[in-house]
Automatic annotation (TrEMBL), chain A:
<keyword id="KW-0819">tRNA processing</keyword>
<dbReference type="Pfam" id="PF10288">
    <property type="entry name" value="CTU2"/>
</dbReference>
<protein>
    <recommendedName>
        <fullName>Cytoplasmic tRNA 2-thiolation protein 2</fullName>
    </recommendedName>
</protein>
<comment type="function">
    <text>Plays a central role in 2-thiolation of mcm(5)S(2)U at tRNA wobble positions of tRNA(Lys), tRNA(Glu) and tRNA(Gln). May act by forming a heterodimer with NCS6/CTU1 that ligates sulfur from thiocarboxylated URM1 onto the uridine of tRNAs at wobble position.</text>
</comment>
<comment type="pathway">
    <text>tRNA modification; 5-methoxycarbonylmethyl-2-thiouridine-tRNA biosynthesis.</text>
</comment>
<comment type="similarity">
    <text>Belongs to the CTU2/NCS2 family.</text>
</comment>
<dbReference type="InterPro" id="IPR019407">
    <property type="entry name" value="CTU2"/>
</dbReference>
<dbReference type="InterPro" id="IPR014729">
    <property type="entry name" value="Rossmann-like_a/b/a_fold"/>
</dbReference>
<keyword id="KW-0963">Cytoplasm</keyword>
Automatic annotation (TrEMBL), chain B:
<dbReference type="InterPro" id="IPR012675">
    <property type="entry name" value="Beta-grasp_dom_sf"/>
</dbReference>
<comment type="similarity">
    <text>Belongs to the URM1 family.</text>
</comment>
<feature type="cross-link" description="Glycyl lysine isopeptide (Gly-Lys) (interchain with K-? in acceptor proteins)">
    <location>
        <position position="100"/>
    </location>
</feature>
<keyword id="KW-1017">Isopeptide bond</keyword>
<dbReference type="InterPro" id="IPR015221">
    <property type="entry name" value="Urm1"/>
</dbReference>
<protein>
    <recommendedName>
        <fullName>Ubiquitin-related modifier 1 homolog</fullName>
    </recommendedName>
</protein>
<keyword id="KW-0819">tRNA processing</keyword>
<keyword id="KW-0833">Ubl conjugation pathway</keyword>
<dbReference type="Pfam" id="PF09138">
    <property type="entry name" value="Urm1"/>
</dbReference>
Amino acid sequence: MCSVGDDNLEEKTSKYMEPVPKFKLDDNKCNKCRASTPCIVLRGKDAYCQACFLSGTTHKFKAFLGKHRFVYPNDKVLVYHTEGHPSTSLLHFLRSGLDLSTPKKLRFEPIVIYIEDKIDLSSEERSDAAEFIRKQVEEYKFPLHYISLCDCVKKNNKVAECLVDDISKLSIGDNDKENLNQVLNSKANTTNKRDILKIYKKTILIEAAKHLGCKVVFTPELGIDIASQLLTNVSLGRGIHLALDVGICDNRDEDVKIVRPLRHFEIKELAMYNHFNRLEVVAKKEKLENIYSSVQSLMKNFVGGLQNNFPATITTIVRTGDKLAMEKSLEDNPRCVLCRGPQENRNEELTSAESTSFSHWVSTRSPQYSMTPVERYEKSLESFSVAGDSPYCFACERLSHDLVVS
Amino acid sequence: MSGLNITIEFGGGAELLFGNKKKQEVILPAKEGEWTLKDLIFWMKDNLLQERPELFIQDDSVRPGILVLVNDADWELMDTVKYVLEAKDKIVFISTLHGG
Ligand SMILES: [Zn+2]
Ligand SMILES: [Zn+2]
């Protein structure tokens, strides 16, 4: 009998990892200074006092920037701002870093961008949300630019034409949702729609950065977002772009780098950071989503469960993402016209994906019986490799069927 | 015996579940035995909550993703739902649910 997976082990408990046990405080002292009374528990085990927690959080942010050196003095940095805790913490990290009078002061120039994409809310709620953002960013004294995702998609991604710096010029229309859906195939599933909109938003950030003279974009993804993106990428056939999509820096564009400076934070740290600093957070109107409606929400839910019960696993996934690098041989490959990542290497031998599309292609052609079967095969393969020169990478090729315009 | 006077605050969007009020002073009615945080959560569900309960409560506690602070300290330091309320306590509920 096969013994693999036989569970007649004496220690039943060792079969599965145990969720983090309920927190128990030994001596009611901060883990770091060993003096003050703690006010926060992180990862279900480490207790810190307010002063140690706040200085540790700020230090973690600055250490990330210091270690990787993406930004040089006087560089302009585009900051992607949105609702919720992470974005607010990011603005506060930047403002307090810039205002320091010590040598550790940050020395670059942030420019904030807000992408209006709340097509599921009413026009009024969307205007209110944008107005909240305007007031908030004004308090931090950063310049703010707005762009409507829908507007941008309608105008064929001509980002420079759609950027506005005055909220009254931000277009918010009742028909935005229909307009946006028009560029997508009505049969497109939620997974593909979300994937496409995500790519569009990334394109907006890169193009807006160029237009505004920024070499670097900061986006507010947390560790948990990185982890679910990593698993989503693998599920959607975007494995080759993992290093770009979840790594420390996305450098698929030659001139603009996308950096994720909050990748080593968890949401609790930032929510508490905002609370202790009395920062006003723009609330996100939440719609309860069916977790089975798309690969992305399924992954988000799965990773959310890990975060609650096995927080160390998230760290492991993110640290794995940190170490990923793109295969060198891909660097000079033609770029995918949708996601702009490098395309896969084209081998002499067909890959399994190519074989599938080859058999689809060959079976929709009428055979020429004047040739021998071997000649027919060789001829078909030859003309296939010409016809098969897709402008897309493997994952976007699949998405491209859902784009009405391209 | 008179009721228990406490302050409840909301942040991060949790206020949207409670009529968009960020701060409420409440008097919990006198009852037999002590008021625990769990009692408070269920009292809030019956008396203050203006949205569907599943947006606030899950099982016998708040929904994962809602942080709770007792007098500005993480409730994980206070035995969470078993914490016994005292007069003038400040309880803060912060939503951390963020979209992707
Ligand atoms: Zn301390
Ligand atoms: Zn692509």
